[in-house]
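Note to self: keep these together.
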Amino acid sequence: MKVLGLMILDEFCKSHADCVAQMLAWIAEAKEAEWTTPNDIRARYANASFLQDNRVIFNIKGNSYRLDTKVYYERQVIIVKRIGTHAEYARWKF
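Structure:
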C-alpha cells in the first residue's frame, strides 16, 4: 500500500515521542501490505474499527492513540486523516 499523509504522523510523533516505535512499525507494515478488503486488515489488526466510506481507525500503542485513515483498496492507497489521543478521538466527528 502507498501511505499518504506521513507528515501528519511525523508532526504528531514530535510531540508524542512514546509512540514513535509503534508508529514506524505501523508505517512499515502498511507499506508492505496488499490489503484488498477490510478482512485483510482485520486479520492483522483485530482491534481496528471500520467505519463508513472505507474509514479505518487503528489503535496505536495499546489504544493510547487512534489513527484515522481512509483506505482505497483498489488503488492500494491509505490516506492518513488524523491521529490523536484516545481522549481526543472521543471528541472527533465522523
